């Protein structure tokens, strides 16, 4: 095939896409504004730990690199809820042992993906190259070398923007008048913190769980790392009486943790210093449509559909993009105009759907997981799945353990929620709800 493709961005989806394209015979040049993280430290404090689930794993398996990634993962079987009194309880993600999500370090995964892409022999990553302009009419891309300051212009008849939520490729597409885009910021930000190993050098908490301290308007979460630490993320209002604007001194941090996360404080001796030194990360959602311009440019990953991280699907959705694009290239034999058009037609609605679900899941995680009504609803969801296997699948399971398109998940989830709420309104005791009761409500004839 031999055709050369220009990619902007060597984050997570960039190298995976390049590997996929290389497997199809294409040569790929990736331009990345950051230095090579395998050789230079690029700083910490802004990277939310990642949860790899079925969609992402499927995409890695398609290009036969999952076996190289798996050793860096830690399976998490559910949410470990930390109450304010220090008590904990596990809420399993699913009913089967295989229904787990996997914690993985963003940095470690990114390094592995870049190396695996280069090992194809058809991918070249150019580091310290900041994309400053994309001219779709002239088919050129302008880069500034972040070390020397020099500017270079390259011809690029086909550009794929995998350059994140602040995408330069997307900006050029918007300027062309052929793409509509909005950015919706979340009123909450985040700080990343570290929970070190215990005195014995082992994990200080259950490692096979995602730990959550839900506190209404904010929450703390913790994901396990291979070095026995946990990466913690405090999701907190940007403004308000208890917010990043008011918690600004060491004593403020200690007071916050004493009052809200007392068990975590006992395991985080350096929390005040780390809180004050680490930056505040901002969160938001990108909505744009379409994701392409003719046969010239395509957006993929966060550049097309950046989402808030509360469903753990940002990376998984981006990896699924790579999988879909690969299938369309196979289907249409390199007819890029058709490939890009079909990619947008099929997938934009999925991007919008997971964006909505991610925001809804934030409310669930910070507000509802400890609510008795939520627990009752969750218990019935799992019972319904047992009564109607394959027909009734909880929304979380559809997202995390299946390949069902996000738009279909959203529609099915809304319908299922109505059934759940109707059953809970009709029956006080979940044990009274059986298959016949549900079929009667749905007016389905029984055998």
Describe this structure in words.
This protein folds into three domains: 4-73 and 103-183 and 283-361, FAD/NAD(P)-binding domain (3-Layer(bba) Sandwich); 187-282; 371-442, no CATH class. It has 15 helices and 19 strands. Helix content is 39%, strand content 23%. It is globular and about 65 Å long. The strands form four sheets. It has a seven-stranded mixed beta sheet. A six-stranded mixed beta sheet has the order 8-2-1-12-19-18, with helices on both faces. A three-stranded antiparallel beta sheet has the order 3-7-4. With 447 residues, the chain is of the alpha/beta class. The chain has helices at 13-23, 54-62, 66-69, 106-118, 168-175, 250-260, 262-265, 271-277, 302-305, 314-332, 336-368, 372-387, 395-401, 406-426, 435-442; strands spanning 4-8, 27-31, 50-52, 74-76, 78-82, 88-92, 101-104, 123-126, 129-135, 140-145, 151-155, 159-161, 180-195, 210-214, 219-224, 230-237, 281-289, 292-293, 297-299. It starts with a strand and ends in a 5-residue tail after the last helix.
């Amino acid at each position: 095939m031999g055709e050369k493709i220009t990619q902007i961005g060597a984050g997570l989806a960039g190298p995976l896409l390049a590997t996929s394209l290389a497997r199809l015979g294409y040569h790929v040049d990736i331009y990345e504004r950051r230095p090579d993280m395998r050789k230079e430290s690029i700083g910490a404090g802004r990277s939310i730990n990642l949860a790899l689930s079925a969609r992402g794993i499927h995409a890695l398996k398609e290009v036969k690199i999952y076996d190289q990634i798996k050793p860096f993962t830690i399976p998490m079987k559910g949410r470990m809820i930390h109450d304010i009194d220090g008590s904990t309880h596990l809420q399993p993600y699913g009913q089967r042992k295989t229904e787990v999500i996997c914690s993985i370090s963003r940095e470690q995964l990114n390094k592995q993906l870049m190396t695996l892409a280069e090992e194809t022999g058809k991918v070249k990553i150019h580091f310290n190259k900041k994309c400053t302009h994309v001219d779709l009419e002239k088919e050129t891309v302008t880069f500034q070398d972040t070390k020397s300051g020099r500017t270079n212009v390259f011809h690029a008849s086909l550009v794929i923007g995998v350059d994140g939520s602040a995408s330069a490729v997307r900006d050029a597409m918007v300027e062309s008048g052929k793409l509509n885009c909005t950015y919706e910021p979340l009123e909450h930000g985040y700080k990343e913190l570290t929970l070190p190993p215990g005195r014995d050098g082992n994990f200080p908490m259950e490692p096979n769980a995602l730990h959550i301290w839900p506190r209404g308007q904010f929450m703390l979460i913790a994901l396990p790392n291979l070095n026995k630490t946990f990466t913690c993320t405090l999701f907190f209002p940007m403004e308000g009486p208890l917010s990043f604007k008011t918690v600004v001194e060491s004593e403020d941090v200690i007071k916050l943790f004493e009052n809200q996360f007392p068990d975590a404080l006992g395991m985080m001796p350096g929390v005040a210093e780390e809180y004050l030194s680490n930056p505040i990360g901002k969160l938001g959602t990108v909505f744009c449509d379409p994701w392409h311009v003719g046969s010239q440019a395509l957006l993929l990953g966060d550049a097309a559909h950046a989402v808030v991280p509360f469903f753990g699907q940002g990376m998984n959705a981006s990896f699924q993009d790579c999988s879909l694009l690969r299938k369309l290239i196979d289907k249409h034999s390199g007819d890029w105009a058709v490939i890009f058009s079909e990619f947008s037609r099929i997938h934009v609605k999925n991007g919008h759907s997971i964006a909505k679900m991610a925001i809804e899941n934030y409310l669930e995680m910070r507000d509802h997981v400890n609510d008795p009504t939520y627990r009752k609803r969750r218990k019935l969801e799992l019972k319904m799945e047992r009564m109607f296997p394959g027909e009734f699948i909880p929304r979380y399971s559809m997202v995390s353990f299946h390949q069902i398109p996000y738009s279909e998940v959203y529609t099915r989830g809304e319908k299922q929620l109505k059934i759940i709420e109707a059953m809970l309104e009709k029956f006080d005791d979940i044990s009274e709800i059986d298959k016949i009761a549900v079929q009667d409500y749905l007016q389905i004839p029984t055998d």
